[in-house]
Amino acid sequence: MAQQDTDQQHPGVLPVDDEGFVVDSQDCEEREADWRGRGTSRPITVVGNPVLHKECEDVTDFGEEFQQLVADMFASQRTAEGVGLAANQIGVSKKVFVYDCPDDEGVRHVGVVCNPRLVELPADRRRLDDSNEGCLSVPTAYAPLARPDYAEVTGQDERGNPVKVRGTGYFARCLQHETDHLYGYLYIDRLSKRERKDALRQMAENEPRYPVVAND
């Protein structure tokens, strides 16, 4: 397993494989617990809150305040029993998401991505998966949504080092879903008007299982 090239960049927080993708499936329990233990859980913002509906600001300062934000995000994600969380879902307009998500082979992935960009896949590599999708910011609602079953994201880790992350199946969906958040899109924005209306109905008819910020 190759480390990042220290002649051209600082060593990353996590190792990378021979293709340059971050290895985020090692020591998951310890890494997630460490982040969560330093964080404070915050309530989740829900659809309708303006912070969810605009592009977030790039992360440029990776200092102590930002490290605390990431820790709070891991704590909030665990409280809400989510597999991914974007900063604007706890009211902070910064381009960073965290994840603790299995892929379709049951392999757990834990990591942080700042300033993410989805890599455009050629048509011959795109296979759509129309599984159900949900969102902590649209609590209790689910709808089928077709997304590619493989995704690659480029960005930076929590210390500002360049990273590439890839995933299949459920984890690929997570990477796409969380990147969408940071550019002001919820999964329900990709649904038909009828499906979106049904998702909002589901949300209105049920109580979230975690603390949320009520919209005024």
TrEMBL record:
Binds 1 Fe(2+) ion. It is an enzyme of class 3 (hydrolase). It catalyses: N-terminal N-formyl-L-methionyl-[peptide] + H2O = N-terminal L-methionyl-[peptide] + formate. Keywords: Hydrolase, Iron, Metal-binding, Protein biosynthesis. The keyword Iron applies. It holds the Pfam family Pep_deformylase. Its EC number is 3.5.1.88. InterPro entries: Peptide_deformylase, Peptide_deformylase_sf. The active site is at E178. Gene3D superfamilies: Peptide deformylase (3.90.45.10). Fe cation binds at C135, H177, H181. Its cofactor is Fe(2+). Removes the formyl group from the N-terminal Met of newly synthesized proteins. Requires at least a dipeptide for an efficient rate of reaction. N-terminal L-methionine is a prerequisite for activity but the enzyme has broad specificity at other positions. HAMAP family: Pep_deformylase (MF_00163). Belongs to the polypeptide deformylase family. This is Peptide deformylase. It comes from Streptomyces violaceolatus. The gene is def_2.
